[in-house]
């Protein structure tokens, strides 16, 4: 019946205008049958995993093993979250409709991205044993087709058919399975007219002079898919807005005929369908008014799919689609690739130079919802990886064919483990919203194992070697088949990859073989320099020479420039753009990306010249430093004699300079600053580096998760491990700062976290090692707040304290900004490992600079620092001066072990916990940290997955809250200090600031979590405003420790920070767990933060106090 219906052809009256303008009728037979295909699908029959991954695969009629688990989560654009896939008819067909192309030009990579993504979904649904009815249309009559036909002087239908056939050829080259039905608009005019009639009958459309417009005012749910308010919407048409519309957002269902355009008769006069009605009519015709999946590119969400929902429900109130799925853009120079923008790169141009499956692998290397930036480098990487994969599988196939294997025997345990692991990683990644990049990464280890079995001495001796090879190859074939990457022949695919590489290099294989002969002769003649030059020449154009026992062969590889060739011995070879012949494909270029899949450099490393770096040289005038010549300030510090001569006058000179505001030019610029300002500046810089090392993982966790296959819970565990060390080090850090002085403790902390950061790439593949390294980072950073608090409490008067705290702790926000700004480009260009090496090195450099500053203060300027301490100590009897009335920090470092024990015993722990003010600080710190740490760790992922921003965009948006915090901090600190200077009660000032810090983010998080249909950038603006205003806490909670006790400020901060680190451990991991369980960012991220912000405000207003408290005396509860 269905086949007969598809074969039925209707005769539709089609009228074309004659050149003179008179319309003449023309009847044309329009078939519903998709055009015949002349291509052969380039794939093996699928051999999917069986229920038991250790047994031989048993294929059913559709290529899927019986009894397979059907767990699948898909991101639904309409609900804005991942949902378990539950088809309308569990035992029937899955209906899937994907919007097809408008064939007026060659298809570009953006089209390939969309249809490869939905081809993978189609394949995976079939792999899960679903029967799928896949419909993909052709919009073969449209304004753009008509305009192009007029431009070329061609009939619109012949033009659209020509480009439709080319599109089908492109899809075949990319190994996209043919859909069940490929309807064309011109074949379905009757269905379209009938649907328009239904919409008019339901009073959701109106006729204006032969045009029919949909009335959005009569459809209250308009905008629910895109989240756009009706007031924000425009017509969403491909032409200018018609002034006859009742509402500018109304869109055309039927367009009246114009001269020179094809048209059909209708109840409203001659005309043709509008853009949007076509898909509604065709999807309803083949799948019914309600079906399972509707897909397309992200750019179709509005207006096309929004309009489809409106008109389908207006025609049939029961119309419903369960899952709306959209793929991300392909970008060129960070701009969406499209025909209308003129920056598109056609599929045909790419596959002239690259194998079609290399393009497919490139597209599958990024999650389908994330934008992907087109670069030649990434295509080179994909092509290289494809060659390695096929070569391994071909070698395996040939080895198994040449030797007899015993099929009845069981496999070795390690082989079974590899197969089980591959199965688990493949199914887990694909069932989690089609993470194809993780599925591709899953085959890396089995391929390595196969290479070991094929080529290493140890592997060749392994028991049941051939059986293991065959089983591993069988399972990898399944993965490649589902991903659409399995060729009809490995040998043919390898030859095609070699041919494409030669074409890119603009050379022939005969030329390569001639070069190999020349190189062999040069090596025999011991002309090694010439031999290396030949190898470098070929490597520069992507031809790698491989020396082996049977001679030298060649294979395609990543092109290497001469500079990269020099670095090759160090394992730093990377891809490079080649000359102008590649510009044909790139149309203006694109940003460089480092691949996650790297191939080893050629076997024979290039010779490289040892580089001699100049050593630091000091220039002295005269012999023995005794006299005479001019010496700069730096030189004087290097010469003992020079330092000794003016050491006694330095303090007096610098104090005079400060007092008189000396106008002479100084270098370095901070030379004339008081030492307390230098200390504050250096401490702030340490906090900048501190947060750079904290947030780098928030960005790097995305490529790390893709590479290692981590889910949200595992990523949450990795990120929360930092806070284990952070919590453990708070109290010890406070006590150490009190005992040894904040300066020394800070320096040790920076060294610890910097070295721990630098070893993260080494430990990343071993989860316990990675967790331990992050714990060490947490320990190093955990002692720093207490150390900084000790420095501030000892050296900064009350009237300057808010600004000092703002400068020091504001470094955290600036560090977040720098980290989030620089981490993405570093990761994209150098790999995620490099961000940890570079950021770790910054801390070591800071330590060297801080050490020299410290030596200068203890030597040249020792008297200056003491002057500030003791001048204030002489007035410290009342404590109103704001400085520490205890031993000087520098003296603390000379404490004996017995002194340390006594110091620890002397801490009035009991008095701390009898104070209501301390408990208010503890709870407020906990509440503020919950919102801060969970947002710091998860906002980049939220922006990437929920708002569909790519890695760079997500990081840029994540920069906005700390950037806003810097602005707010510069306002809040003077605001608080001025109030205190003008006599406002300190407690009242701290309560005002902390209330702003808590209520603001709670309010904006509420607005962001409630489904108000807000566009992404309004949500970003709300979160930025709320989190920025939370920095008022630097003039509230974070000053209260010093306010109530200068002597024990560092220990009090250690107490509150210990509790405040708990959200980093619990909150970050809990957010990941809730996200996996609920798939709701509102429940997982925002709701807990709102609760703690509001309860923290209540507790703070009730019990907080900044009145100085003498904890060393036992007194009543305060």
Automatic annotation (TrEMBL):
Biased composition (Low complexity): 52-67
Coiled coil: none
Names of the cofactor(s): Zn(2+)
Region (Disordered): 52-71
Pfam families: CysS_C, MFS_1, tRNA-synt_1e
Domain (Major facilitator superfamily (MFS) profile): residue spans on this chain: 679-1107
Described function: Nuclear genome-encoded factor required for normal assembly of chloroplast polysomes.
Name of this chain's protein: cysteine--tRNA ligase
Source organism of the structure: Dichanthelium oligosanthes
């Amino acid at each position: 019946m269905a086949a007969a219906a598809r074969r039925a052809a209707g005769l539709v009256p089609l009228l074309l205008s004659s050149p003179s303008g008179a319309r003449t009728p023309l009847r044309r037979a329009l078939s519903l049958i998709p055009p015949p295909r002349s291509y052969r699908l380039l794939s093996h029959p699928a051999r999917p995993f069986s229920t038991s991954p250790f047994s031989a695969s048993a294929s059913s009629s559709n290529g899927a093993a019986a009894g397979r688990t059907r767990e699948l989560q898909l991101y639904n654009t309409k609900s804005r979250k991942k949902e378990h896939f539950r088809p309308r008819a569990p035992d029937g067909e899955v209906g899937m409709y994907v919007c097809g192309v408008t064939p007026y030009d060659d298809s570009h990579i953006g089209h390939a991205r969309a249809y490869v993504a939905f081809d993978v979904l189609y394949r995976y649904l079939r792999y899960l044993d679903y029967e799928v009815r896949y419909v993909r249309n052709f919009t073969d009559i449209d304004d753009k087709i008509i305009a192009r036909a007029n431009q070329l002087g061609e009939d619109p239908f012949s033009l659209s058919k020509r480009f439709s056939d080319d599109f089908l050829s492109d899809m075949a080259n990319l190994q996209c399975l043919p859909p069940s039905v490929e309807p064309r608009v011109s074949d379905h005019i009757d269905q379209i007219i009938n649907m328009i009639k239904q919409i008019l009958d339901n009073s959701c459309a109106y006729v204006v002079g032969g045009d029919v417009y949909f009335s959005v005012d009569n459809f209250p749910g308009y905008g629910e898919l895109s989240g756009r308010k009706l007031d924000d919407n425009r017509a969403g048409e491909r032409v200018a807005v018609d002034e006859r519309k009742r509402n500018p957002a109304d869109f055309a269902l039927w367009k009246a005929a114009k001269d020179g355009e094809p048209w059909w008769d209708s109840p409203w006069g001659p005309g043709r369908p509008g853009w949007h009605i076509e898909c509604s009519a065709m999807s309803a015709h083949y799948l019914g008014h309600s079906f399972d999946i509707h897909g397309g590119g992200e750019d179709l969400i509005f207006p096309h799919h929004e309009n489809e929902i409106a008109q389908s429900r207006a025609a049939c109130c029961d119309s419903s689609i369960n899952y709306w799925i959209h793929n991300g853009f392909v970008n060129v120079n960070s701009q969406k690739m499209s025909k209308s923008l003129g920056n598109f790169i056609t599929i045909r141009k790419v596959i002239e130079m690259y194998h079609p499956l290399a393009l497919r692998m490139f597209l599958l290397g990024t999650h389908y919802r994330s934008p992907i930036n087109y670069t030649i480098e990434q295509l080179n990487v994909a092509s290289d990886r494809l060659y390695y994969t096929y070569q391994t599988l071909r070698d395996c196939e040939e080895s198994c064919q040449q030797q007899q294997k015993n099929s009845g025997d069981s496999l070795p345990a390690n082989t079974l483990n590899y197969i089980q692991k591959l199965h688990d990683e493949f199914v887990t990644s694909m069932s989690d919203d089609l993470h194809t990049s993780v599925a591709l990464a899953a085959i890396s280890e089995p391929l390595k194992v196969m290479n070991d079995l094929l080529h290493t001495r140890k592997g060749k001796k392994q028991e049941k070697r051939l059986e293991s090879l065959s089983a591993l190859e069988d399972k990898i074939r399944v993965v490649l088949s589902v991903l659409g990457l399995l060729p009809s022949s490995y040998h043919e695919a390898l030859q095609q990859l070699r041919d494409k590489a030669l074409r890119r290099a603009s050379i022939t294989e005969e030329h390569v073989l001639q070069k190999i002969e020349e190189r062999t002769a040069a090596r025999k003649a011991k002309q090694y320099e010439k031999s290396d030059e030949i190898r470098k020449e070929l490597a520069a154009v992507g031809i790698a020479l491989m020396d082996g026992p049977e001679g030298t062969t060649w294979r395609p590889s990543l092109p290497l420039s001469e500079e990269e060739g020099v670095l090759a011995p160090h394992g730093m070879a990377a891809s490079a753009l080649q000359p102008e012949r590649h510009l044909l494909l790139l149309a203006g270029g694109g940003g460089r990306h480092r691949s996650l899949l790297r191939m080893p450099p050629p076997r024979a490393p290039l010779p490289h010249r040892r580089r001699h770096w100049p050593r630091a040289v000091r220039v002295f005038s005269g012999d023995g430093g005794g006299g005479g010549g001019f010496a700069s300030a730096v030189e004087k510090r290097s010469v003992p004699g020079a330092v000794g001569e003016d050491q006694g006058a330095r303090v007096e000179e610098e104090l005079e300079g400060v007092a008189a505001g000396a106008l002479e030019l100084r270098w370095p610029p901070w030379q004339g600053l008081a030492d307390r300002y230098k200390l504050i500046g250096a401490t702030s810089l340490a906090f900048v580096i501190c947060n750079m090392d904290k947030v780098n993982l928030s960005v790097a966790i995305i490529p790390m998760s893709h590479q290692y296959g981590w889910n949200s819970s595992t990523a949450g565990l990795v990120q929360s491990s930092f806070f284990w060390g952070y919590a453990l080090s708070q109290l010890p850090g406070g006590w150490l700062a009190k005992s040894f002085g904040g300066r020394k403790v800070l320096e040790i902390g920076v060294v610890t976290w910097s070295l721990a950061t630098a070893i993260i790439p080494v430990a990343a593949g071993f989860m316990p090692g990675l967790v331990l390294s992050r714990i060490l980072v947490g320990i190093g950073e955990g002692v720093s707040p207490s150390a900084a608090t000790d420095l501030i409490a000892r050296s900064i008067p009350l009237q300057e304290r808010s600004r000092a705290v703002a400068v020091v702790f504001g470094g955290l926000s600036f560090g977040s900004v720098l980290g989030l700004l620089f981490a993405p480009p570093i990761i994209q260009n150098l790999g995620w490992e490099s961000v940890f090496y570079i950021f770790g090195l910054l801390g070591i450099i800071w330590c060297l600079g801080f050490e020299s500053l410290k030596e200068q203060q203890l030597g040249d300027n020792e008297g200056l620092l003491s002057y500030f301490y003791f001048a204030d100590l002489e007035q410290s009897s009342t404590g109103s001066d704001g400085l520490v009335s205890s031993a000087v920090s520098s003296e603390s470092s000379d404490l004996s072990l017995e002194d340390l024990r006594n110091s620890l015993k002397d801490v009035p722990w009991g008095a701390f916990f009898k104070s209501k003010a301390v408990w208010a600080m503890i709870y407020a710190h906990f509440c503020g940290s919950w919102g801060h740490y969970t947002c710091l760790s998860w906002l980049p992922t939220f922006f990437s997955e929920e708002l569909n921003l790519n890695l760079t965009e997500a990081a840029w948006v994540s920069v906005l809250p700390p950037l806003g915090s810097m602005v707010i901090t510069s306002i809040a600190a003077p605001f608080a200090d001025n109030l205190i200077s003008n006599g406002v009660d300190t407690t009242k000032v701290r309560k005002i600031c902390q209330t702003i810090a808590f209520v603001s983010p709670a309010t904006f998080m509420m607005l962001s979590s409630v489904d108000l249909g807000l566009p992404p950038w309004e949500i970003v603006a709300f979160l930025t405003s709320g989190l920025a205003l939370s920095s008022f806490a630097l003039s509230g909670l974070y000053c209260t420790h010093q306010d109530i006790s200068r002597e024990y400020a560092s220990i009090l901060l250690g107490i509150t920070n210990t509790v405040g680190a708990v959200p980093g451990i619990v909150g970050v991991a809990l957010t990941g767990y809730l996200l996996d369980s609920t798939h709701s960012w509102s429940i997982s991220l925002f709701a807990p933060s709102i609760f703690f912000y509001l309860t923290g405000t209540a507790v703070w207003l009730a019990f907080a106090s900044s009145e100085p408290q003498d904890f060393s005396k036992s007194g009543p509860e305060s």
